[in-house]
Task: structure prediction
Amino acid sequence: MAFINSVITWVIKKRIHQIDLFMKYPHDVQEEWFKKLLHAGKETEFGKKYDFDSIRNYEQYRERVPIHSYESLKPYIDRLRSGEQDVLWPSDIKWFAKSSGTTAGKSKYIPVSRHALEECHFKAGKDMLSIYVNNHPETMVFNGRSIAMGGSHNISDVHNEEYYDGDLSAILIENLPFWAQILRTPNREIALMDEWESKIEKMALITMEEDVTSLSGVPSWSLLLVKRILEKSGKRYLKEVWPNLEVFIHGGVKFEPYRQQFEELVGPSGINYQETYNASEGFFGIQDRTDSNEMLLMLDYGIFYEFIPMSEIDNESPKVIPLGEVKTGINYAMLISTNAGLWRYKIGDTIMFTSTNPYRFLITGRTKYFINLVGEEIILDNAERALIVACKKCDAIVDEYMAGPADIKNGEQARHDWMFEFIKAPKDLAVFGDALDNALKSLNSDYEAKRYKNMILQPPQLLSLQPGTFYAWLKSKGKLGGQHKVPRLLNQRPIIDEVLSIHYD
Result:
């Protein structure tokens, strides 16, 4: 295995040179992909509708092709799922990544082409490891097994052809190259089980006997596996079960709320952590430095990027800019055009660039996950940073949380309601609430103004939930595992009331 580790490490580090090239020449690389995508899409129904063949530059593309949401592309995607081809992308599309969808609970089915699998997702997986190996030259990560927390998929027959839909992670596991299958655990049959609770049990039973060197997945679901392994093994620390565990590669939600839990469960010797920004629609960023949690925008994955300043997001015709015009310190919503046929697609995430040479960024939230009851405009980044301050001041550890507006339609005063499940509860929830409130004031001037002397916005109201409440809510929605996660900030009441009904049941 040491020989295999050396060979894979040597091979995979060769990609660093290409990463350096797109860091040095980002606009040339994006221009090249812009032309490739338009050329590939010009004979599709979508490409003919907007006459891709006559588009000569970005300005024409921006003027001619409208911004699309999932809802506006859904008629095309529905036809793809019914067996039609050459609608959005020229190659056959038989894989559809099932996303958690809207807050109303509807699923989205994101087309995944063979080009997207090879040029985006698998390329990103290799880059992720290449960057890790480059940052940790003494690594032995390929000397053992890897665990990827995957979801499940369904197979349907359309006109005697098999079509698949499911979590992106399941699609990737199903299509992994042979060398990656050899290094992973458990076997594919267990990894793709659709009954999440049984899968966790089997994964814990099998993987606790393996020499696991890397773990990857959404932090919340990975923690579930880690805790079950510790329960079944009787060990205090994960490094007692997997002494050669090197790295946890994470994405899907912000890691900071989970960091302390991981560090305490892993053990005193610790492991490395690497953040990624991947979604059903594409793979966008990888943490490329060990001294910062910023991520490098990956520019050669068959994705052309555009950005909408959040100050423009609610305009009927918002200002849209290419990568070359972004500035640091501004919140942007991302638009992507991809090699799976998503054209000027508003993905719903917001990012803020910290550097433009090279392009590094932080994820700041979701365009739909915010609280704006009276003009306070609380975004996810505000909430996460304020909670770090409150937890530090009150010696608390938050497991999961959700926040949203009070039910002002039924006579409540304007305020925010916060619900928490704690790993380590604060001694005084009111003191924790004050710390959270004050931290939000320091981070968000609009919130501070609305909270002035309680004139517009009352102090937040906090509730400590029974352990397992959020899990029970996700289970009631059929959203265990995979890409599913607890929505942190909501601007409407219904989901909050659903969670409260479980808590008080």
